[in-house]
Amino acid sequence: MMAPLIALAARWGVVERLRKPVAWLMALGLTLALLALFWGGWRAFDWFNDRQAVARDVDHSNAEVRGRQVQAERSAGAAQQQRDDGIRNEQFQQEEKAHEARRANRSALDALHNEL
After folding, report:
1. Model pTM?
2. What distance in Å separates the CA atoms of residue 26 and residue 20, rounded to the nearest whole number?
3. 95/80 Cα distance (integer angstroms)
4. What is the rounded CA–CA span in Å between residue 50 and residue 53?
5. What is the 3-state secondary structure (H, E, C) of the chain?
6. Cα–Cα distances in Å, from 44 out to 39, 48, 59?
7. What is the C-alpha R_g of the chain?
8. pLDDT per residue over 58-116, tens digit each?
């Protein structure tokens, strides 16, 4: 590894006594450059991977919220249907009481409110 760097230093015109230290500095520089390249690549990969993970998490969360909304709407619709059925049933019973009171020649309002 050092021989090509020493030859490169000689080609650049570095004096002979400084070629070996310059080759060591070049090796250190190359090592740092490679480490920086790997670190930058890892950071880019990690950044894109994190963005994808966040996007997946947001999609999953939105799906859960939509599911809960649909479930709440269904529950509310069922509760409303049950209330409406109860009101219809009560109204039917009151109409029956009123008709029964009229058939017995009593006041329909008295039959509904006084429960005679």
Report:
1. 0.47
2. 10
3. 22
4. 5
5. CHHHHHHHHHHCCCCHHHHHHHHHHHHHHHHHHHHHHHHHHHHHHHHHHHHHHHHHHHHHHHHHHHHHHHHHHHHHHHHHHHHHHHHHHHHHHHHHHHHHHHHCCCCHHHHHHCCC
6. 9, 6, 23
7. 44
8. 999 999 999 999 999 999 999 999 999 999 999 998 888 888 888 887 877 777 677 54
